[in-house]
Amino acid sequence: MLFGVFAVHSPESCPLNNQTSKEMFVQIQEKIEAKMEEFKISKLIGFYMSVLEHEWIIVVDADNSHDIERLCIEVGISSVSTIKIVPLNYYSDAIKKMKSM
Fold first, then answer.
1. Number of structural domains, the chain?
2. pTM of the model as a whole
3. Host domain of residue 88
4. DSSP characters for 46-91?
5. What is the pLDDT of residues 46-70, one digit of tens each?
6. Taking a C-beta distance cutoff of 8 angstroms, is the pair 76, 9 a contact?
7. pLDDT tens, 4-59?
8. Helix (H) and strand (E) counts for the chain?
9. Which CATH number does the domain housing residue 10 bear?
């Protein structure tokens, strides 16, 4: 199942403005990839950021949101960001479902 992980931080805790956040951020993808199996994340689909919005968007394929929550705590994302985990669907799957109704 696909999930979007939306992590929003304040300008003060932004990796561009905060040395502690910067040190965590430059290692975050490596940390996520190292812990994927432990937290049942089968694939990291994409990792995006909107610099001026102070938001990271991570798309993962995982069994459930609870494991993603634990991953975010373990790798440190939750130490600088508020996190929202949202189940996602492919557009093509949504269209198929609509047409079958």
1. 1
2. 0.87
3. 2-100
4. EEEEEGGGTEEEEEEEES-HHHHHHHHHHHTGGGT-EEEEEEE--H
5. 999 999 999 999 999 999 999 999 9
6. no
7. 999 999 999 998 998 988 888 899 999 999 999 999 999 999 999 999 999 999 99
8. 4, 4
9. 3.30.70.1060
